[in-house]
Specification:
CATH class: Alpha Beta
Structural class: alpha/beta
Largest sheet: 6 strands, mixed
Order of helices and strands: EEEHEEEHEE
Shape: globular
Number of helices: 2
Helix content: 10-25%
Radius of gyration: 15 Å
Strand content: 35-45%
Length: about 150
């Protein structure tokens, strides 16, 4: 699995003019699933992201976790994280098929919720407008299986 995680002051996702998810302080998570990914990858990725200490403490050091700042997550499915960019037109055969990807996307969010976090989300496979006010900016790439 791959995730691009941005520390945000706020973020939202809108589908067909309807805001379907919104958070204040927390993480905007763009989540991609590969064909070899498993439930263990979803669990491990949730653990790593939810435990990341990337919020500033009183000394200005990245030392606080999502829980310590009372943050939430906005998770958006993003198969394009597995794009093949060898030519000018990207190919997406490296992404998991929806029948594998959607349950792992759901499992990742369930794992984050089980850790006590509020999790907002988009809609798997939908065309979405994602808005964010990045904080820092701090953007991190997480990947399992490497």
């Amino acid at each position: 699995m791959r995730a691009v995680v941005t520390r945000v002051k706020e973020a939202s996702v809108t589908i067909e003019g309807q805001k379907t998810g919104a958070i204040g302080v927390g993480f905007l998570v763009l989540l991609g699933v590969g064909p070899q990914d498993t439930e263990q990858d979803a669990i491990r990725l949730a653990d790593r992201i939810c435990g990341a200490r990337v919020f500033e403490d009183e000394a200005g050091k990245m030392n606080l976790s999502l829980a310590q700042v009372g943050g939430a997550l906005l998770v958006v499915s993003q198969f394009t994280l597995y794009a093949d960019l060898k030519s000018r037109r990207p190919g997406f055969s490296g992404a998991a098929k929806p029948e594998l990807a959607e349950p792992l996307y759901e499992r990742f969010m369930a794992e984050c919720r089980s850790r006590g976090f509020t999790v907002e989300h988009g809609e798997f496979g939908a065309t979405m407008a994602v808005a964010s006010v990045n904080d820092g900016p701090v953007t991190l790439l997480f990947e399992t299986g490497v």
